Structures are given as C-alpha cells and as structure tokens.
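Local shape tokens:
==================
===
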Amino acid sequence: MKDKTIDYVLRTTWLTVNKMYNEEAAKFDITMAIGFTLLSIDPDDGTPSTALGPKMGMEATSLSRIVKTMQERGLIERRPNPEDGRGVLIHLTALGKIKRDLSKDKVLKFNDAIRKHISQEKLNHFYEVAETINEMVCNKKIYNTKTP
C-alpha cells in the first residue's frame, strides 16, 4: 500500500508501544496487561470487580483471566464489598502496590519522553483525533451508516 491508512498507523504504533511496555514489564515479572490492570485499581479503597472492565475498556471475559493470574501471583485479593453484600472489591496487596508503582513510573516516563519531543499543540490535536475516532467507533458511525 503506497499511502498508509489511519488504521495501519494506529495498529503499528500501538504494537510498538505494546512491545516496549511488555519488555519493561518483563523486567519486573509482570506483563503490560497486568500493569494496566494494576493502574486501574484504586490503591486505597480497591475497585469493584464489575467496574474494572468498563474502566479499562475491556470485556469481562478478557479481564477475568488477567485478574485470576494477578490473584495467583499475590498482586491482588478479592474482598466482600461492605456497601453491597453481593459485590466484590479487588484490592492491591503490598506486592501489587509495589508493581503498580513501577508500572506508574514507566507510564509517566513514557509520557515525559513523548512530551519532550512533541509540542502541546500537536498533542492536543492527537488527543482530539483519537477521541473522534473512538467516539465514531463506539457509536457505530462507520459501518452502520446507510450510505452506499
């Protein structure tokens, strides 16, 4: 393909970032997916298990395997939700908090490095374009149109 399509640029950029994060996470015996999950759990109050998937933009079935692995590795523990007897809160263990801090440090370092090379104006345009793409996809404005 002579001209790069938007989805090609999105996909190849994300795969590169994903690989970078997985290489860094492996140094701490976790994966990028585990790091992302750790960052999505409230470190003080825990997070309801039913809220974690939507918070991360993931389906519950995809997330359940990650949560199970995290529990087996001693990164999280499940506790009854005191406000809802039927619910479960996911809390970070001491080890989970350490791994969360390492993950947070890597994300902030990545952001700082990018910000040093790209102007705020260009980043604002990037965020605007990404938000528009996300909104169009989420609201099915691409393939559900009735145009020929």
Summary: The two ends are 24 Å apart (CA to CA). The beta strands are 47-48, 76-81, 84-92. The CA atoms of residues 79 and 89 lie 5 Å apart. Helices lie at 6-26, 32-40, 49-56, 60-72, 94-117, 120-138.
